[in-house]
Amino acid sequence: MRGMNVPEVEARAVPDEAFLLDVREHDEWRAGHAPAAVHIPLGELQARVEEVPADVPVYVVCRVGGRSAHAAAWLNHVGREALNVEGGMRSWAGAGRPMVSETGQDPFVA
């Protein structure tokens, strides 16, 4: 998707009450995610798009920002207002934003 123009925001600029959509895979989600995030893996997004609100901005996050940029571009194409969280969950954690883990493992181990 070269040439796409998806607005990006820094992790620390995501409002606490924002609709945060995490498009990572299930194992990445379990390793660590934002407490209020909604999890829809990128591969399931088209089938589950009705779960994404059309009346509020949607902040889309993945591990480092690539998958979420694609998801945000597609969501904008289908009428949502989507913004990519620059740097993904790595930036989220780096900004000291809250995270929860279901596994206790480091979510950023390769």
From TrEMBL:
State the protein's name: Rhodanese-like domain-containing protein
Q: Which CDD domains match?
A: RHOD (cd00158)
The protein's matches in SMART domains, at most eight in alphabetical order, are given as:
RHOD
- List the PROSITE patterns hit by this protein, alphabetically: RHODANESE_3
Q: Which organism is it from?
A: Planomonospora corallina
Q: Which InterPro entries match?
A: GlpE_sulfurtransferase (IPR050229), Rhodanese-like_dom (IPR001763), Rhodanese-like_dom_sf (IPR036873)
Domain Rhodanese intervals: 14-101
Which Pfam families is this protein grouped with? Rhodanese
